[in-house]
Amino acid sequence: ILNMTVGGGESRRVRCLGDSACGSGRGDFARAVALINVAQICESVGYQAFRQSALVSLADISIGYIRDLGRSACFHANSSGRTESNVNDVIRALKELIVL
């Protein structure tokens, strides 16, 4: 939960649990964590205000990216005959997603 200026200038706490922007279902916790993390990143690079819709969009992008990273790491582990991913699988996945 962060205190930030959202939308038209009103200052309020950014929170997700139970908020309509979070959606429903088993992904509520992941969405809540992603919203908080994205808000913290935006604040750390100097943003003092943002629209809730932009925050939700960035959170969705980060969730999708992490999901793709996990799938790729799992693929590399399975390709190597293992059932669990290790650091090398994650590094290969990051290279595949053009981060490293």
TrEMBL record:
The keyword Transport does not apply. GO terms for molecular function: protein heterodimerization activity. Keywords: Nucleus, Transcription, Transcription regulation. This is Bromodomain associated domain-containing protein. The keyword Ribonucleoprotein does not apply. InterPro entries: BTP, Histone-fold, TAF8. One of its GO terms (cellular component) is transcription factor TFIID complex. It holds the Pfam family Bromo_TP. It comes from Nymphaea colorata (pocket water lily).
